[in-house]
Design brief:
Blueprint lengths: L8 E5 L22 H10 L4 E5 L9 H9 L4 E5 L7 H10 L1 E7 L11 H13 L2 E5 L5 H9 L4 E4 L17 H6 L5 E6 L8 H15 L5 E4 L13 H11 L3 H16 L5
Parallel strand pairs: 1-2, 2-3, 3-4, 4-5, 5-6, 6-7, 7-8
Length: about 270
Amino acid sequence: MPNAVITGIDTHAHIFRRDLPMVAGRRYSPDYDATVEQYLAYLDACSLSHGVLIQPSFLGTDNHYMVAALQRFPERLRGVAVVDAQISDGELDELAAAGVVGIRLNLIGKLLEDYTGPAWSGLFRRLARRGWQVEIQRGFADLALVVPAILESGVTVVIDHFGLPAASVQLDDPQHAPFFDLLGQAPVWIKLSAAYRSQSDLARARAIEARLREACGGVGRFLWGSDWPNTQFESQTRYDEQFALLEALLPDPEERRRVLVDNPATLFGFAHA
């Protein structure tokens, strides 16, 4: 893969078509298409060079649509897939060849499984050997129940959407200390993305970012994601607004460069020119 100048990496976006097979019991069904061409146009409009596609939960473990996009644009895109715990090494090899660098656990509205059991812990160890990540979407209060068991495998963990702290969450509440303690561990990364999913305005997002920064010891494990096309919130935000939020959160150009370029280039395997 040829090296490219990295001007910025959006680490969280989804693509799909409304006519693709969707899983039963899903929380959301799109009535529109979100194509890779549309996504790349948004990147270009914000002068961002690279992006990361996240398999939408409503498409389940059928990653074919995302994989096809990765294969078309290998120089610009990486992917995070949704898989079963029993996925074979051969299937993981195929995903890796397409540019997949991790898996996602979207645990919203789901009963927590035993991630210390042989199936999941075995998968996490296999992912750790590959240098992959496990991305987690779960409500703030439950993260300390989920993350430690996954970290024990040696795999890198990425927390979606600021950790999804509900509007009622008090960041200085002692019950949340275990989660903030986890962030002191090097393999845990945080996405500054989709503040609207926590009903957070700019002031609240700044407060959350400041507490996360304190716990992480700086911005060295922060990432940014647009969450495009902002499913269920399409009428409430736009791509450029999400990018502007990052600029407001990180006014220092050097910090912003770390979050937009250096951090995600390392985590997602993008090579600098």
